[in-house]
Design a protein that fits this description.
- The chain is of the alpha/beta class.
- It contains twelve helices and 15 strands.
- The longest helix is centred in the C-terminal third of the chain and has 28 residues.
- The N and C termini lie far apart (57 Å).
- The structure holds pyridoxal-5'-phosphate.
Length: 400
């Protein structure tokens, strides 16, 4: 009989969204006529831009013709046309990332989790709390020591490093899921300096960079000095271009980034990751890569930006309702997430139940993202405009 990886037994039994679904289903069963508005899961709802769909269809057609059919992609790192397009996209906001520093993947979740394969299990991993649960789970699965940097009301949910604490790997997410807060250049520089002092590597999740409106907020950690020596960046087309069901993202590892092996050799992180991917990943489908490349064309950007503006307008509607109610929140400005303080000192799940029962609105309890999330609650701006308005009217009617 095989033994199991016992670390899995230490994980939370149920994933946050499964718990939510259970509660909502039970409520629906007891109240079949309830008109429930879902503002919980961070999934997009608008269809993919027309020119992107066209590019995917064209790619699919090519697969059905002998002359243009493609089998395995040679490198598994993504076709050059897409890596060049991503590199050009970085350039459009003033960041220099070479095409051969970019690997195409099936979304940021896989790489956020898998990247730790190349790092030893003895590393100390620093994660801001609250956080996207993948960072914690993936490291607990390998038995790594996880320590936390508190994001809370006092620091505007922008955790900063504690100089007295050492870490080897640091997960940062900006704009942040769940809190919607986004680091300024100065704050990122502080993290970079901390990483350099600790010989640490920052794993930077930029999945929501397309929602940044504030000039002072970098779209990439590579916009900040010193980052190429200490950071890896993950990004995704999921929220940028509605690719949650398509699956495509990219990871950037600068050529300069090295770590020292136990025998003193300097090892390229990019080469190590390439070796891992070569063994465990065969790349993203050709039609999806064609679609992804279309996102970065002028027309693709125009069309996908329209969808982002739609979500940003939803975020404003949510934010102004909370302003009217005098409820504190972060996010909404550079992010599709609004992170609000539960009124009347309610706990996260208590507020979840109340919203579900009294307003038939579903959000996400902050406690599901870590201890600092207790008493906080996440609403997403990814919904339908009219339903978002309706949800906020219902919440306002509760008169907190
Ligand atoms: N990173 C963050 C912070 C997220 O919120 C998500 C998805 O919600 C992801 C990564 C994963 O996105 P995907 O795997 O769809 O690219």
């Amino acid at each position: 009989m095989p033994s199991i990886n016992e670390n899995f037994l230490k994980l939370e039994k149920n994933y946050l969204f499964i718990n939510i679904a259970k509660k909502v289903n039970a409520y629906k069963e007891a109240n079949p006529d309830a008109d429930i508005i879902r503002m919980g899961i961070g999934d997009v709802t608008l269809p993919i831009a027309e020119c992107v769909v066209e590019a995917m269809k064209k790619g699919a057609d090519e697969m059905g013709v002998k002359e243009t059919f493609r089998g395995y992609e040679d490198s598994g790192a993504g076709y050059d046309f897409l890596r060049e397009a991503v590199s050009g996209y970085y350039k459009s906001f003033g960041v220099d990332v070479a095409a051969d520093e970019i690997r195409i993947n099936d979304g940021a979740k896989s790489d956020c989790g898998n990247i730790v394969d190349i790092f030893g299990d003895d590393n100390v991993v620093l994660i801001t709390d609250p956080a996207y649960p993948v960072y914690v789970d993936t490291n607990l699965m390998n038995g790594r020591k996880v320590i936390y940097a508190d994001s809370n009301e006092e620091n505007g949910f922008a955790a900063m490093p504690d100089e007295s604490v050492h870490a080897d790997l640091i997960y940062l997410c900006s704009p942040n899921n769940p809190t919607g807060s986004a680091y300024t250049e100065q704050q990122l520089k502080t993290w970079i300096d901390y990483a350099v002092r600790n010989n640490a590597v920052i794993i930077y999740d930029a999945a929501y960079e397309a929602f940044i409106t504030d000039e002072a907020v970098p779209r990439s950690i590579f916009a900040v000095e010193g980052s190429r020596q200490c950071a890896i960046e993950m990004c995704s087309l999921s929220k940028t271009a509605g690719f949650t069901g398509m699956r495509c993202g990219y990871t950037v590892i600068p050529k300069e980034l090295t770590v020292t092996a136990s025998d003193g050799t300097e090892v390229s992180v990019s080469q190590l990751w390439g070796r891992r991917e070569g063994s465990k990943f065969n790349g993203v489908s050709y039609p999806v890569q064609c679609a992804a490349a279309a996102v970065f064309t002028r027309e693709g950007q125009r069309q996908t930006r329209e969808n982002i503006r739609y979500y940003q307008e939803n975020a404003k509607i949510i934010a102004s309702a909370l302003d009217e109610l005098g409820i504190k929140y972060t996010g909404g400005k550079n992010s599709p997430y609004i992170w609000l303080k539960c009124p009347e000192n309610m706990g996260s799940w208590e507020f979840f139940d109340l919203l579900l029962e009294k307003a038939n609105v579903v959000g996400t309890p902050g406690a599901g993202f870590g201890k600092n999330g207790e008493g906080w609650f996440r609403l997403t701006a990814f919904g339908d405009r009219e339903r978002t308005k309706e949800a906020m009217e219902r919440i306002k009617a509760l008169k907190f």
